[in-house]
Structure formats: structure tokens, C-alpha cells
Amino acid sequence: MTLRAPGTPKPTRSYRACRRRAGRPSTGWWYWLKSSSNYTTAGQVQWGSGSVGDIPLVGDLDGDGKSEVIVWRWITSDWFWITSSSGYTRQGAVRWGGAGDVPLLGDFDGDGVDDIAVWRPSNGTWYWLLSSTGWTAGVAKTWGGLGDIPLVR
Ligand SMILES: [Ca+2]
Ligand SMILES: [Ca+2]
Predict the structure, then answer these.
(1) Of 1, 37, 100, 103, whose CB is crowded by the most CB atoms within 10 A?
(2) What pLDDT does residue 26 have?
């Protein structure tokens, strides 16, 4: 069953075709429409791979106000990203988290750059790396428990 908000038109054939092309986990291709062009121009880049279980995320890790393309490879706990400020050519990486964690991004230290975080459902603990330390210093805080859904704004 598909739920739609009242008044939402039924997806057209072209919409469904576009939606299928919006991301391809198996090949790691990302596609997006740019708000700066009123969603008339698109961007794309290949980064990560669904075949190794990469989880796609977006966040601002270089502080330029634009999103990085980020994957969390939970098998190895590695975060890999390519920076918006480099035109998605410069790479970054850090190891953080473990199997069963929920990856999240948010600016916990208020420096305008996202911090890299995981929430561990098994013990209800948040662990994050502070961007203000170059993601070298971590913080842990117990909040929530099994069955909760972690959110960051
Ligand atoms: Ca950025
Ligand atoms: Ca931060």
C-alpha cells in the first residue's frame, strides 16, 4: 500500500522513471537536482557501493554550506566522503562506529561543520567525533534505548 498526502498527484511514468534513476546502490551512483536552478539541472557522481553495504548520507563536512556525498561502510566502520568545495574530487575518511550502530550527522559542537556520529541501540549511547578537532576527539552520551529512532536536526 502506498500512502499519499491528500491532493498529491499520482506519479507519472516519467516521475517513476526518474525516481528509479535517483540512486543506484549497486553501482554507487548519486543523482540530485539543484535548488539553485529551481530543480532544472542535475548533478551526479559515483561514490561508494551498495554491494559492500555502504549506507549513503549527506552532511556538510567542509563547512562550505553545501552537502558532501558520504557513505558509511558499516562492515569496517569507515566513513568515506568527497567534498563539495573540491567539486567532489577530494576525499576524506575516518573510522567510527561499529556493526549495529545507526550513522548520523549533526553539528553538536556548533562550529558550522557536521560532526560524525553513531547511535548504538544496544546501550542507547550516542558517540560523536567533533569536527572542531578534525574528527579526532570523541564524545559519548547515553540517551534513548532499544526501539527508539535517533534523529538529529
Ligand atoms: Ca560541504
Ligand atoms: Ca561541528
Answers:
(1) 103
(2) 79
